[in-house]
Amino acid sequence: MTGMGDTIANPINRRSMLAGSLVLGSATLALPRMVFARTAGSRNLLFMLLRGAADGLAMLAPVGDPGFAALRERTLPDYTAARRAQGFFAIHPALDQVGAAYERGEAVFVHAAATAYRERSHFDGQNLLETGGTQPYGLKDGWLNRLVTLAGEAHGAPPRALAIAPTMPLALRGSAPASSYAPSALPQASGDFMDRVARLYAGDGQLCALWAQAMETRAMAEGSDAGNLRDAKTAGELAASLMREEEGARIAMIELGGWDSHANQPVQFARSARQLDALLGAYRAAMGSAWDRTLVLVATEFGRTARFNGTNGTDHGTAGAAIAMGGAVAGRRVIADWPGLGERALHEGRDLAATTALESMLAGAAAEHFALDPKTAMARLFPGRIAAPLAGIVRG
Amino acid sequence: MSRDSIALNRFGYGLRWRETMSGAPVRSAEAALVAEMDRFDPRPPAIAAREDTSARAGEILELIRRNRNMRGRAERSAPATMGPQGRTAAMAGDAMGGPLAELPPDIRRAYLDGGRILRRDIALKVNLAARSDTPFIERLVHFWSNHFSVSAGKPGTQHQVGNHEFSAIRPRVLGRFSDLLKAAVLHPAMLLYLDQFQSAGPNSRFQRRVERTGPERGLNENLAREVLELHTLGVGGGYGQADVTEFARALTGWTISGLGRIERFAERRAGGASFVRFAHEPGTLRIMGQSYAQAGPDQALAVLDDLAAHPATARHVATKLARHFAGDDPPESLVARLERDFLGTGGDLASLARTLIASPEVWVTERVKYRAPFEWLISVLRLTGLEGLDDKRIAGALRELGQLPWRAPSPAGYDDLAGSWAGPDALVRRVELAERVARSVPAGGVLARAHSAFPGALSANTRVWLSRAESGTQALGLLLVAPEMMRR
User: Fold this and answer.
1) Mind giving me the DSSP string for A54-70?
2) Which of A167, A304, A344, B459 is a good FRET partner for A11, with 20 to 30 A between their CA atoms?
3) Residues 102-161 of B with CB under 8 A from A
């Protein structure tokens, strides 16, 4: 790479090479061969963590709730032609492939859901969602790692677990064996990160001017989201390639950032949702026949304020939405004990109230998928949570 | 910036995360910097363990010469088969940029080997700075290495440029300037880079012999001119063309080891250079008003000693040091103080370092310097604790950022001005790299880390945006490109 002529002739190669060259490992994934018990061995679980608090009210909009129009009238046109879901909900149009899966009966939404966490810090909220405890930093290992142990106990050998990330996310840390792998083309600098840098520089004359100039040049040079969508699609295909074979990973995790939409939310949410959609669509297509035995759980650390703020965004809120998707899912349903969006129904007068424990969805779906006792799963994966695990997400 | 933050970031390479909570005794920022001078290890284990590559430069030059001779014979015997393409390949080797595949296998292997050694030395330099507990002195090493810039663009230099910094510069950064000058200028890397190795005195016995038998060699003024213009007196330092020519004559005979035909006449000198007496210009030479009657290698050494002590050199060095630590347009008061110190102590570099630490101009609270890419990357590695990158990735990152070590575009070294580094695309590259680095390391406690990295100097704006990040990873990425990280 040095001294022997420049390999970086064009900017596209430069970017992808940089992505691969510095921090992301080029080593191939070395997964030891293991024999699985039949029940666990054929089932796949992909856990997707949307970091930054994805807005459930945008993802699955309760367009039939009169409170929604009152709070978010300006976004109503976005849902005019959107796919409808059970009840009075509409699926955000950027989630095209998720919506198609819903209509095929391969996706379930869980709404007005939240973990035990009721505060508004991303760091604490993610810690709690990943450890599965009831207090941030109360547990040191992750619920997904404990699921590996639990499934191993039930079926004789722990399912192979893998984080598709350069470092092991907390949800997969723990005593059970888990590997991590990051491909070279992933991840690109995200649009959200670039936006935040712009705001970080807003008050700095020199950096602000440099940044504005750079963004102007980039806008002329390339389309805005094409790169990120390509990356998302690549990530989905990669996840599938690491899971669909018999010796592949059975439990995997992917993180997707970009959901903290304090400003310009309609644009920012749609951008992140398109990435999520591209990833899931590519994953489904690449899983082939293994899709029938697959469950994807998509969750985020908390919701967002029901009302828009002064910069056309929303701030940190409480309840949000989650998705279960896959050939193994008994779909075309919305699971929600809908609390309503009237002034008095809102949590602290500002957020969608939580009526379903997110943990009960995760534990219930995982238990059904891996043929585990749901109560045991709830107690082991999310100790201290007393909610009943949700039943019937996965086909019997 | 607070004094602690200045000591960390302006004098050093920033906080090294995880090592800050140790029970080191609390002392003033100034005392901590002075203490680094006693603690500095000029030859740490990583350098001591480095394989000796000093013979490789001569070997590869011999390979190329033999290949050229063979090619010449082939062309003479069968000119129709050796078209321009063959010549292009041979020249490409000299330029280091051409298609390696067209080179003869042994030369190609030698180049690839040189590239490997160069990458390893870059990684060695980076890791030393990233892990150092004497970052102020590491910064001085980097400063002087850039002052005596050598570039790995010519055959043989790839093996030597790392060696130049590690063995010629590093041990002398707290010594006397004259010793540093002699070691840096008369090192094989410099002798190769500035063409000195093939310069011969017009009246030397060597010259008289080759005039009868071989191609013209003669005097090369490149090194002499650059020493006067860049390394000692500076532009406008009062030298003329006659001084350049006479100094070039004084330097004749200084060459590298391992050149086949003259190797048996080569007298080994300290630092890996050789002296070939019969290529040296005989007689007394007159440079900058001084006469030099010394015989052989001592003549150039005497000239260098006098140049090192020249008032113009004191001014030149003081200005560059002041610019590096106190801003692109350094305060005249600081330049004058460093200049007086240099002249008063005979170029004692430890004294200059102490004067820098004691100078109020270096402790002004505004951030006075835009971090150059190398500095920024080292600070990123320190702040994240990112380790274990292989040689290719380190070199690749520095190339992307625009400041690959030992690849400066001219003998003047890399520029030390914000205008050269604060560009839009360069900034985006840092941002892209920062996000990727942040994704590859544990990202806990970012706000606490930010406060430790910029004690008493973290802006409210940065604090706000770090605390609003949607994940620890994102917060760390933002910290790596925050205004506090871009300037020191």
Assistant:
1) --HHHHEE-TTSHHHHH
2) A167
3) 111-112, 114-115, 118-119, 122, 152, 158
pLDDT digits (tens, 9 = 90+) for B155-208: 889 999 999 999 999 999 999 999 999 999 999 999 999 989 989 999 998 888
Sign, Cα dihedral of A199, A203, A207, A213: positive
The answer to whether A1 contacts B395, with C-beta atoms less than 8 Å apart, is yes
Q: Is the whole-model pTM more than 0.90?
A: no
CA dihedral A54, A58, A62, A65 (to 10 degrees): 110
Domains in chain B: boundaries? 1-19+23-76+104-174+369-487, 176-326+329-366
User: Which residue from A200, A204, A218 is facing B478, i.e. has the nearest CB?
Assistant: A200
Look-up: residue for tokens 């110190």?
Answer: B341
CA distance B90 to B92: 5
Q: What is the CA radius of gyration of chain A?
A: 21
Would the CB atoms of A5 and B98 count as touching at under 8 Å?
yes
User: By CA distance, what is A187's nearest residue in B?
Assistant: B436
| Single-letter code of the amino acid located at B187 | H
Of the candidates B2, B30, B5, B3, the residue with the CA atom closest to the CA atom of residue B453: B5
Distance from CA of B30 to the nearest CA of A (A): 30
Cβ atoms of A186 and A235 within 8 Å: the answer is yes
Cα B3 from Cα B357, distance rounded (Å): 11
Transcribe A215-279 into DSSP letters.
HHHHHHHS-SSHHHHHHHHHHHHHHHHHHSSTTS-SEEEEEE-----SSSHHHHHHHHHHHHHHH
Containing H/E element for A296? strand A294-300
Which residues of chain A make contact with B462, given a CB cutoff of 8 A?
200
Query: Among partner residues A14, A23, A213, which is closest to B439 by beta-carbon distance?
Result: A23
Complex prediction ipTM: 0.88
Put simply, whether A227 touches B (Cβ < 8 Å) is no
Q: Compute the Cα dihedral for A147, A150, A154, A159 and give only its sign.
A: positive
By the 10 Å C-beta count (0-12 exposed, 13-18 middle, 19+ buried), A127 is classed as buried
For residues A294 and A326, the answer to whether their CB atoms sit within 8 Å is: yes
Asked if B175 is an interface residue toward chain A (Cβ–Cβ < 8 A), one would say no
B268 inside 8 A of chain A by CB? no
d(CA B433, CA B437) in angstroms, rounded, equals: 6
Interface of A with B in 199-218 (CB under 8 A): 199-201, 203-204, 206-207, 210-211, 213-214, 217-218
The region that residue A148 occupies, defined by phi over 0 for left and psi between -120 and 50 for alpha, beta otherwise, is alpha
Q: What is the 3-state secondary structure (H, E, C) of A159-219?
A: CCEEECCCCCCHHHCCCCCCEECCCCCCCCCCHHHHHHHHHHCCCCHHHHHHHHHHHHHHH
**CA distances for B115 relative to B100, B189, B373, angstroms:** 12, 15, 22
- Our CA angle for A239, A21, A8, nearest 5°, is 115
d(CA B239, CA B310): 11
Residue B477: φ, ψ to 5°: -60, -45
Write the pLDDT tens digit of every residue in B212-245: 665 556 899 999 999 999 999 998 899 999 999 9
Longest pairwise C-alpha distance within chain A: 69
User: Are A259 and B114 an interchain contact pair (Cβ–Cβ within 8 Å)?
Assistant: no
Question: What is the per-residue pLDDT across A92-145, written as a single tens digit (0 to 9) for each?
Answer: 999 999 999 999 999 999 999 999 999 988 989 999 999 999 999 899 999 999
Hunting for tokens 């005392």 — which residue is that? Answer: B31
Query: Quick check: B436 contacting A, CB < 8 Å?
Result: yes
Task: Supply A21's token pair.
Answer: 């060259």
Q: A17: which chain B residues are within 8 Å (Cβ-Cβ)?
A: 396
Q: What is the DSSP string of B131-142?
A: H-S-HHHHHHHH
Q: How far apart are CA A1 and CA A22, in angstroms?
A: 12
